[in-house]
Amino acid sequence: MFAHAWGTIALLASCLVSTSGAVTYSPVKPPSYPLAVRSPYLSAWIPGNLVASLPNSNAQFWAGNNLVWSVIARVDGIAYNLFGVASPNDNTESATVTAATYTSTHSTFTVTAGSREFILDFFSPVSPKNYVRQSLPFSYLTVTVTAGDSAAVQIYSDIDSSWTGQTSDSSWSYSTSAETGLFQIEANGAATYSQNSNGQALWGSAVYATRPSDSSSLSIQSGPRVSVRDRFIINGTLSGNHADWTSGGVVGFAHDLGTTASKSAVTFAIGHVREESINFLGAAQTGYYRASYESTASAVVHFLDDYASAYRESTDFDGLIDSAGTSSYGSNYSDILALSVRQVYGGIELTIPNDSLDTSDVKAFIKEISSDGNINTVDVIYATFPIFYSLSPEYLKLLLLPVFEYQGSDAYTKDYAVHELGANYPNATGHPADGEEMPIEESGNIIILTYAYQKASGNTDLSNTYSAQLKQFAEYLYANGLYPASQLSLNDALGELANQTNLAVKAAVGLASYGALTDQTNYTTTGKEWADKIWTDHLGTDGAGTRFLIQYDTTPWFLVFNHYPDVLFGLKVFPDEAYNATADFYPTVRGTAGVPLDGAINWGQTNWQSFVAATVTGDARNLFISDLHSYLANGLNTAPWSDRYWVEASNGYSAGQSYSFRARPTLGSHFALAALSGADIWSS
């Protein structure tokens, strides 16, 4: 009763948080809006609490460092700062922000400047089944002046070398192709595959491009920021001159729309291009799109040509995410899914070999953003997999392929699955000797992920090709899974513990998944026998069978999320009574802002809350979804949505504030409940 009443109050409260001052936020004001989020290195955001001051607030890289990206408009000769002008030039005014909206692919801001209204649409395509479109390392910004009183209108935008990760020594160039103007900015002397302390790529090029619209003429200029902007503010056009790069300098475009009362729009493409994008076991990988568009110029021209088609797809995709969320658990849940999508796919890159550009050899690489920067961490793929199960099962295969290939090489000799492919993205050069080991965790994960791919796609190619490895990991689980030795689990903050209940659950579900994957019922039977010991015989529960414990025969309780694949796959490893008991128990231990990961700590993770929400029903499910939505909309956070937060006030933080992580692609876990409704629901 308490959980239901609290969830109703939270729902009403979230509906009321739709305006702040003069700004209307739809559906809610999130911690941070995705602006250009397409890869771990093209990841620009604006904190929700800066939207009201959007004209004078910088975009930020996912790590929180500022990126210079500005938009200025002139209306009848008066210059208005629309976005990103943190240090305004003289003789400019700030536009007034009136509305902010996000969908799964768009973040849109409405501003008023003089007699006209402008809409800034930051559009990062998510096209999971169109590998060319998804792999293009660019994002769109469309600036639309809506219909109104006749006025002379010009639109200006610029970026600087902050996008290269190197502001002390860079260079820039300008070129044209098919009416498209293209600026590229590079950090000088940077080593391939190197990053700065904020995780920005130091090699490659930042790209800014545009072309004249049907109603605009285009001018360009590069040079010192104040002088380039002054030129536009005074004249409405740029000089066409290109000064040498200087610290604080910008590259800028100006569109002159003339005198018009009609709706008009101009579109910019922003990106970060690295020809050698991933180091996979010493061989360079490159973006999938380069098989079709090998040069940066041809790629960005295509990207702008593709705008109308990509926009149409985004409308359908946004509608699907909204309907999938609403039909699964209401509009609060659709709000959660919509904000999660770009963060997930923006942490992944689709690649092919740089030498052959062979599109039959496609792989995917995922960055463990903000937590430790590992590449293709198997448990991160596990945390993310519900979104792939729902929308793009092939991604499970593409992410696992490099893992299987490495495990099959002479460089890997363990009899359990590897933790990751390298300590530092983009170097997938192999698991370091001093790296984390999670033998049961990752062995169970890789079996479960392979079965998720097979069940969602209907394809057996992965399990057939790597049958020997999968059998090896199943045998490891069989020999070691019921009474796990002291070792790390996915929640490595717990440290190395013996007889972890959640690890034993992973082993039981992993064995049953292997049985289903290979049609070997003896493994499924073993998994169920272990579940019976863990649950019915109270090996992993309190004596009354009301809760699962962190370790056998010890307190405190633990939020057991490894049940989720059992429910998703319909394996019935654990009996309904286990899920009914947890549904009754978890609401009784809810903290101020949510259910913690276990009874000894004051923080929770949205990943595992989402997994558990899919295994329980009734008031408990409502509790988890309501808490997640309240955390999304509480106004206490500014980082790209963190999957870990304080559920009680701790260490100087309020309940509901994020804890450490930011921008991690593991928000794919938020699709756990939606995935129960069916696999592979998106058709491109």
Can you walk me through this structure?
This protein is of the alpha+beta class and 684 residues long. It has two domains: 31-313, Beta-galactosidase, Chain A, domain 5, CATH 2.70.98; 362-675, Alpha/alpha barrel (Glycosyltransferase), CATH 1.50.10. The chain contains 18 helices and 27 strands. The strands form five sheets. A ten-stranded mixed beta sheet has the order 1-2-10-11-12-13-20-17-16-15, with helices on one face. A six-stranded mixed beta sheet has the order 9-8-7-14-19-18. Strands 24-23-22-21-25 form a five-stranded mixed beta sheet. A hairpin with a 2-residue loop joins strand 11 and strand 12. Helix 7 runs antiparallel to helix 8 and helix 9 packs across helix 11. Residues 105-322 form the Glutaminase A N-terminal domain.
Keywords for this entry:
684 residues; alpha+beta; Beta-galactosidase, Chain A, domain 5; Glycosyltransferase; 2 domains; 10-stranded mixed beta sheet; 6-stranded mixed beta sheet; 18 helices; 33% helix; globular; disordered N terminus; Glutaminase; GtaA_N; GtaA_central
Question: What's this model, at a glance?
Answer:
This protein is an alpha+beta fold and 684 residues long. The two termini are 43 Å apart.
**Total DSSP helices:** 18
Overall tally of domains? 2
Total E-strand runs: 27
* CATH fold topology of the largest domain: Glycosyltransferase
Tell me the name of the CATH class of the largest domain.
Answer: Mainly Alpha
Organism: Penicillium argentinense
Pfam family, one: DUF5127
Keywords: Signal
Protein name: Glutaminase
